[in-house]
Here is the input.
Amino acid sequence: MHPQLFRYAQGPYGGHEVLLGASFDLLIWFVLAAMAVIIFHAVYKSG
Amino acid sequence: MIVRDIMADFELYQPTQLKDAFALLDQYGKDAWKMGGGYDSLSWFKERHKQPKAVIDLGGIAEMKGISETADGVTIGALTTLTEIENDPIIKGKYRVLAEAAAKVASPQIRNAGTVGGNVSQDARCLYYRYGLPCYRAGGNTCFADTPEGVNREHALFESDRCVAVSPSDTAVALVALDAKYVLRSSKGERIVSAEDFFVGPKVDIMHLTSTRPEEILVAINIPKKWAGSAFYFEKVADRNTWDFALVNVASAIVVKNGVIEDCRIVCNGVSAVPRRLTAVESIVKGKPMSEEIAKLAGQSSTRGARPLNYNGFKIPLMANLVTRAIRDAKV
Amino acid sequence: MSDPHTSGKAVPRHDLIDRLYHWVMAAAVFILMGTAFLPKFGIKFEWLTAHWISGIVLGVIVVLHIFRAIIWQNFMAMVPDGKDIVGAWRTLVGAFADTRAPAKPGKYNVAQKFYHLGIAIVILTLMGTGGAMLFKIDTPFWKRNPYVLTDEQWGLIYTVHGFAAMGIVAMIMIHIYFALRPDEWHLTRTMFRGWMTRKEYESHHDTLRWVPDTEK
Here is the structure.
């Protein structure tokens, strides 16, 4: 399943989509990115 | 373009045992939709505003049906129909306020299939939300009802926070007045919440009216015997006498001894996102004689702190009068 | 034991006001993160009031910090300079080929400077977008007016706020990791007690690039 980047909804006047915000499904990717930095640094420093 | 009146595809499951329903909920997670009588669900599906992947029709689960008297009071299965509640001798005899509330829900046809679990769990009836607009309750960033031009005569007087939708349930007020306990079960276990805690306002969860978690099913409602045989009152005011949601409704359970109000619970709906228990009013009337004056004072006090919107100011005198009657006219 | 302050062994690094600023900011950021994300994990509570009040507290202390940094502190101490860039390059390349040791940093090392720059951008973004969102809620001090922006503009505001909020979660994780590392502990400790030992100062810092206030 591809995570959505944004949240959209049908606009109040119909016919077009409006942007609601960022998709919080992405939070896990931010957390994983931070963990990747941390693990990389820890491994590099211990090497 | 949205195609209306034709439901989107979904997988339909009709388990006959709770454990199978829990397994399905665990399997589908947030993509699952729990359905009781279907009166709330099907309108969402037909409008295509809700498009779950899997619909779990709970209607075949026998253990969620029926009314039985216990040592502590009475247990009502969540799938018990409103008609059954309306006609049940135990409910009519000891907890009449619930029978009267059930009898006022929608229409006879709907009450024959609609369930008490569905009635208390139904979603908000704000017309903007139901129309599918991207409002706060639908996950959006605005409230279309609370605007200078918004049609908000059916909306909240109290405790609104961004969203001004109200709880539409008739049986909910009676169950809060009776201090009922809701039994929520999942594959992980069971928790029992009070009727007041079952409902949540927009401050806590702007997208849901109840605290039921996605993996949980409301399986039963327990009514303690404390209020059995009390003086009760239920009244619902709607734009028409049948098949309509309450503008304001009220339920009271009052213990009267020697003409004095010993204990009471008074609850209004249609005025906030959760059935509003009037604890301040209860404090005022406890220990006082059951009189016209006290009832009027209670009515006037009940609306303190109300913040009317552009078109729902009429609810303030309506609520005050209903609360007055809920005390003055309560009968054993 | 002699008092490190009077014996000259203590090198002051963070004034009390700056340490207070840091910890109040940390508390505000944690409340903001908790109130923002815990409800999304199913932990339901009345989050909005705590969120906007913490946001205003954070905004006020950030503005005070900016004024203090510009007027009373050495603003350039936190700005990456040429030596920092060369040092960073040597650290990066040195891991593979360059054997020359990178120059010692001044008061702040290059990683801290870039981290500060990054988190400053993220927090200012959150403050700007969050400040706009205050127009959407009623508080005891003002009434909401959601019409100051169009639906599309609000969507953009919420999108930027959301991405910045998720970004700060990642940045705080990294910050805590570095703060807890034993080889960075001498710096973390200064955020509690305000000073480091002269030995730590001389071994970790270029004493010409960072001259403590008490020694100027």
Notes: The longest strand of chain A covers residues 17-22.
